[in-house]
Amino acid sequence: SRRIKLALIPGDGIGPEVVSEAVKVLDAVVRGEDVVIEKTHFSLGAARFLETGDVLTDDDLAAISSHDVILLGAVGGVPGDPRLANANIERGLLLKLRFSLDHYVNLRPSVLFPGVPSPLAAPGDVDFVVVREGTEGPYVGNGGAIRQGTPHEVANEVSVNTAFGVERVVRYAFEAARARSRKKLTLVHKTNVLVFSGSLWQRTVTAVAAEYPEIAVDYLHVDAATIFLVTNPGRFDVIVTDNLFGDILTDLAAAISGGIGLAASGNINPDGRFPSMFEPVHGSAPDIAGMQLADPTAAILSVSLLLDHLGLTDAAARVRDAVTADIAARSESTAAGASRTTANIGDAIVARLGS
Ligand code: NAD
Ligand code: IPM
Ligand code: MN
């Protein structure tokens, strides 16, 4: 049988709560398959930093890299915790993993499942995917401050966009569009202001588009894209965009398609040189941590993306279908005043997995 080495990084806050449910679903869905999942648990995040002073050591990174795939919950301590003032767990752990493991595609699908209330009056047919660049842009840490703390402080944060980095993610986005039914790709940027990176992104999309005559290509400035995400999200199919715009757009995308508790993502290294990492889009939610109030669906849908990535497409579809069925039944259960714990939702989704 096939052996899959899975690195688990539950992390902080609600991370461990939602990862427990995701693992429950994963274990249940592979039971019928000829697959053995070997899990290694990595205790990383704010709690680990407070205990040992380490965020992600070279040994941690090497150990994680030796796995086939990674499932992460969320990282980030309680805001304002003075002991974390100088520890940037998000940069030192999450971004370090994305950069070191060359996760140049951050894949964030948005689907409005039947029965999910959207905050939009007329959401239409919401089914798009954001292909967010994952290793460049303003996230690279190419910055610095001078005269810090004085009235003459200058703080720079330089967005890095390489021809290599832009082309590979744009190519991935075109392939994604080709595999989908609407066959449409929208570049989102801010070319009217960010002229150098904007020009590189625009020229790259135009050049690659020539190889994909069946894909309709358009462009939106990021500010206008936020309008259309709210007024007409059905116009989108594949959105390709830079790291920071993609971060912001995908929280909005989550909100219009049923909430952050449903939004899944994959940090993908399409070359297969490094393990890809799957995680909910949401963070550690310190406001509800430890209370069994978190919705584990985003983490469970991330398991579906993980299974797809491993080529276990039947298992992936079974997870997606079980989630779809659970979500469809939610409006009834909430109407009846029933509220479910994080574990209740995980159990209900396991129960809906067809065999
Ligand atoms: P957040 O996503 O943690 O929370 C935003 C709001 O959404 C909160 O009200 C929270 O209760 C709610 N929420 C989030 N997930 C939910 C779920 N599964 N079910 C129900 N409600 C949910 O964002 P934030 O408050 O900006 O960040 C908190 C911490 O998490 C910060 O330290 C931040 O840096 C970190 N963070 C980490 C990741 C990650 O690990 N991938 C992502 C985003 C934020
Ligand atoms: C996300 C998060 C991260 C990001 C933070 C925690 C570094 O917001 O995964 O969307 O900005 O990418
Ligand atoms: Mn984000």
TrEMBL record:
Q: Name one Pfam family in it.
A: Iso_dh
User: Which parts of the sequence bind substrate?
Assistant: 98, 108, 132, 223
Q: Where in the cell is it found?
A: Cytoplasm
Boundaries of each Isopropylmalate dehydrogenase-like domain copy?
5-349
Q: Where does NAD(+) bind?
A: 283-295
Main location as per UniProt: cytoplasm
* Residues the record lists as binding Mg(2+): 223, 247, 251
Reactions listed under catalytic activity: (2R,3S)-3-isopropylmalate + NAD(+) = 4-methyl-2-oxopentanoate + CO2 + NADH
Enumerate the PROSITE patterns for this protein: IDH_IMDH (PS00470)
InterPro entries xrefs: ICDH/IPMDH (IPR050501), IsoCit/isopropylmalate_DH_CS (IPR019818), IsoPropMal-DH-like_dom (IPR024084), LeuB_actb (IPR023698)
- Pathway note: Amino-acid biosynthesis; L-leucine biosynthesis; L-leucine from 3-methyl-2-oxobutanoate: step 3/4
For this UniProt record, the keywords arranged alphabetically read as follows: Amino-acid biosynthesis, Branched-chain amino acid biosynthesis, Cytoplasm, Leucine biosynthesis, Magnesium, Manganese, Metal-binding, NAD, Oxidoreductase
In this chain, the site described as Important for catalysis is at 139, 190
**Where are the bilayer-spanning segments?**
none
What does this protein need as cofactor?
Mg(2+); Mn(2+)
EC numbers listed for it are 1.1.1.85
Name residues in a coiled coil. Answer: none
Q: Which SUPFAM superfamilies match?
A: Isocitrate/Isopropylmalate dehydrogenase-like
Gene3D superfamilies with a match to the protein in the record: Isopropylmalate Dehydrogenase
**What remark does the entry make about the cofactor?**
Binds 1 Mg(2+) or Mn(2+) ion per subunit.
The text of the family note is: Belongs to the isocitrate and isopropylmalate dehydrogenases family. LeuB type 2 subfamily.
> What exactly does this protein do?
Catalyzes the oxidation of 3-carboxy-2-hydroxy-4-methylpentanoate (3-isopropylmalate) to 3-carboxy-4-methyl-2-oxopentanoate. The product decarboxylates to 4-methyl-2 oxopentanoate.
Per UniProt, subunit arrangement is: Homodimer.
Q: This protein is called what?
A: 3-isopropylmalate dehydrogenase
Lineage, broadest ranks: Bacteria, Bacillati, Actinomycetota, Actinomycetes, Micrococcales
Q: Gene behind this chain?
A: leuB
